[in-house]
Amino acid sequence: MTQHMATLAMRVHDALVEARHQRGSGRAAALRTADTALDQLRQYGQLAWTWRWWNDGRYQHFSGLCEALGRPLGGWRRQVGDGPPRGPAPG
Q1: Sequence-ordered strand ranges (E) for the chain
Q2: What is the per-residue pLDDT across 42-52, written as a single tens digit (0 to 9) for each?
């Protein structure tokens, strides 16, 4: 699982770099890719904590990093007209 999480983190990074060099629908697609990979990464982090592979401190640090990246990513997606609506996540 660690290798898969590292791969997802690199996918987020690569998609954000790609988005920086794109315009229009290319940028929106790259931001969507980054957002999807970040969501998958979050899910794996939650599993690692649920299965007790991570302690509370590690999970809190990880969650904070994901939130610190996810908030501006959602804003960038809204800026290009492809973002989720503002507000708390459903569920």
Answers
A1: none
A2: 999 999 999 99
